[in-house]
Write a structure and sequence with these properties.
This protein is 81% helix and 0% strand. By secondary structure, the protein is mainly α. The radius of gyration is 28 Å and the shape is extended.
Length: 294
């Protein structure tokens, strides 16, 4: 009987402690929420004051530009095919910037990923410094790099390509290194036992295992780079973004051309997303085996 009383007392004490812990966690969560809302409100207030307090005044006009653009586009709908043809070369330039940046960035990121993967790196003490370099390249937005390069090199597609390439190296280098960590070491050890050097071990023992994942991430990055290339055009880095900035700057009378550019960008991103999604699915999951029917 005494044992039962002791057990029930311990159970009650444990239950009270659990309830107290739950209440403490809820209180901490509530305090964190209050702090977050306070920081959000103060940050918005500071941003609005830096914007000369124009946010609330301009909030009622937020739909004016879309309405004016689409109204003008509908009014001049017969001219839309000619505009699509006119700006198609700029779209090709944007895609070329993204493709070249993705290819160069993926190759450099692949090399960097092998150098920063523990177990594969030929020089162990370089792993940490190279990882920090990838962190820096990944942390700095493309538009910041592009603005610096435009100041040094002038406007055009070259600064955009360099900026996107550098950011791509940082992004895919991190992703590729995580993929490398899942590769089996047995092929690498087998090649090392027959005297293969580091390059041969990586090329023959690691890359064949993870190549589908490499290509999948590279295609995903290509989608992102198309958007980045279009955005960089707003700061003078060439491509269709540059044309879009010019048409929007002219205002009324050019909104139909801006609408045509938006249509080109939308269709391009949708097509690239669908195609790269299909390719990534085939690379990572393969194709279903054909069924044999009698």
């Amino acid at each position: 009987m005494a044992d039962e009383v002791t057990i029930s007392g311990q159970t009650a004490t444990a239950g009270d402690a659990y309830i107290a812990q739950i209440k403490k966690k809820r209180l901490m969560s509530f305090i964190i929420l209050i702090v977050f809302l306070a920081l959000l409100a103060s940050g918005f207030t500071v941003a609005d004051s830096r914007n000369a307090g124009g946010f609330w005044d301009g909030l009622g006009n937020i739909f004016d530009f879309p309405f004016a653009m689409f109204s003008e586009a509908i009014e001049r709908a017969p001219l839309m095919p000619a505009y699509l043809v006119q700006y198609f070369p700029s779209l090709i330039e944007t895609i070329n910037i993204a493709a070249a940046s993705t290819l160069i960035g993926a190759l450099l990121g692949l090399a960097m990923s092998l150098l920063v993967t523990r177990g594969f790196a030929p020089v162990s003490w370089l792993v940490s410094p190279l990882r920090r370099i990838l962190d820096i390249l990944r942390a700095i937005p493309e538009i910041v790099i592009a603005l610096v390069l435009i100041f040094m090199l002038g406007g055009g597609p070259v600064p955009a390509m360099i900026a996107i390439t550098l950011h791509t190296v940082g992004a895919v280098g991190k992703l590729f290194s995580e993929v490398n960590e899942n590769a089996s070491m047995k092929p690498v050890e087998g090649l090392a036992s027959v005297g293969a050097n580091w390059t041969q071990r990586m090329w023959l023992g690691v890359i064949p295992q993870v190549a589908p994942n490499y290509l999948s991430y590279a295609l995903l990055r290509f989608e992102i780079n198309i958007r980045a290339s279009a955005i960089l055009g707003f700061v003078g880095a060439g491509g269709i973004g540059y044309d879009l900035r010019n048409t929007m700057s002219w205002g009324v009378g050019k909104y139909d051309e801006a609408a045509a550019i938006f249509i080109l960008l939308f269709l391009t991103i949708v097509v690239v997303d669908q195609l790269s999604g299909m390719l990534r699915n085939r690379l990572t999951h393969g194709t279903a085996a054909p069924q044999v029917t009698s």
